[in-house]
Amino acid sequence: MAETGSERKVELVIVGGGPAGLTAGLYAKRTELDTVLLERGLPGGQLLNTELIDDYPGLPEIDGRELAELMTKHAQKFGLEIQTAAVQAIKKLENGDFRVTTEGDDVYIARAVILTAGGTPNKLEVPGEVEYSGRGVSYCAICDGAFFKGETIAVAGGGDAATEEADFLTRYVDKLYLIHRRDELRAQKILQNRVFENPKIEIIWDTVVEEVLGDEKGMNGLRLRNVRTDEESRLDATGLFVFIGFLPNTGLLEDHAEHDAGGYLITDRDMRTSIPGLFVAGDVRAQLTRQITTAVGDATTAVIAAEKYLTELKEAEATATA
Ligand SMILES: Cc1cc2nc3c(=O)[nH]c(=O)nc-3n(C[C@H](O)[C@H](O)[C@H](O)COP(=O)(O)OP(=O)(O)OC[C@H]3O[C@@H](n4cnc5c(N)ncnc54)[C@H](O)[C@@H]3O)c2cc1C
């Protein structure tokens, strides 16, 4: 939109430009739906935080940013319009349309919405975490790893992201402590093995970070607590990367939609939510696993279902006015 504060009508709004949103955009334009995709940052989503992807079929090894660019260009080849805009609210109106409001106060009135807003990294919520964020504490290995060349750092977590990123970070750092609150990792076996075999990584089991320590120069250590013995210790480290899960970005929904205990939106097999006309795809959706392949698969289904929904709406309106 040229000016802020304007209102525009479209058939379909896609919120979020990660793998799910870009795939939805590709299929929506290929199906010739009047569509706009709203993305608050650069298109690509978490691909922009991922270095090597080796599990996307047909592309045995690809850099995340390269895949993001390829997906963006592919969707744009079909004519997808991508607007840089942070969506603030999505509201279902009485007439069945949706009002999608951006931070710049632009309003899109859409007949259907596909929400593909992914998630936000969980925080440890300990003293010093916010204070030293950007001065030692990070949530993105690819963005910040190179700042820690030759240093000793820690990674908090025990799932796929923590193990994968710990392994990645050892290309820069001399020593890495993986701090995990349990006595076994939750990550896939292949990722666990990479960590076990990496001589730069030492795992500190049954332990949580209690505080991020530092001075005016930045972070210089962690206060740790063993959850079994309650014993506290200090770990000298100049960096802490936190990978302890994601919170789905569903806060923009003004109406209640069914969700699971983690806040992920529940859909039927066609990506329909409990709000008619609202479809979701990708990491924001309740499902067994969250991968690029599942995000693009969900998004494909969501567009086909949205197209069907829009056709049925038009048919019902035509019948009503006949
Ligand atoms: C470190 C890491 C490594 C990974 N490695 C792999 C891997 O090797 N293989 C694999 O298959 N998967 C991997 N994944 C998982 C994969 O990246 C995700 O499953 C996938 O990106 C999900 O796509 P998505 O489009 O649902 O969400 P996202 O990629 O999170 O995209 C969501 C988009 O929505 C935007 N957005 C959010 N809120 C708003 C708003 N209010 N307004 C506008 N835009 C908004 C965000 O800016 C973002 O661009 C990895 C994830 C991480 C974190």
Helical coverage, percent range: 10-25%
The CATH class of the largest domain turns out to be: Alpha Beta
What is the total domain count? 2
Order of helices and strands: EHEEEHEEEEEEHEHEHEEEEEEEH
List the total number of helices: 6
Report the count of strand segments: 19
Name the poorly predicted regions.
none
Full CATH superfamily name of the largest domain: FAD/NAD(P)-binding domain
Strand content: 25-35%
**Oligomeric description of these chains:** single chain
CATH topology of the largest domain: FAD/NAD(P)-binding domain
User: Which kinds of small molecule does this entry bind, naming each only once?
Assistant: flavin-adenine dinucleotide
- Annotated CATH architecture of the largest domain: 3-Layer(bba) Sandwich
> Could you tell me the radius of gyration in angstroms?
22 Å
Q: Give the overall shape.
A: elongated
What summary fits the major beta sheet? 7 strands, mixed
State the distance separating the first and last CA atoms.
35 Å
Helix and strand content put the structural class at alpha/beta
Set down the secondary structure blueprint.
Elements: E1 7-15, H1 19-30, E2 35-39, E3 52-53, E4 62-63, H2 64-77, E5 81-84, E6 87-92, E7 98-102, E8 107-115, E9 119-121, E10 137-138, H3 141-144, E11 152-156, H4 160-169, E12 175-179, H5 189-197, E13 201-204, E14 207-215, E15 218-226, E16 232-236, E17 239-242, E18 246-248, E19 278-280, H6 292-321
The protein binds flavin-adenine dinucleotide.
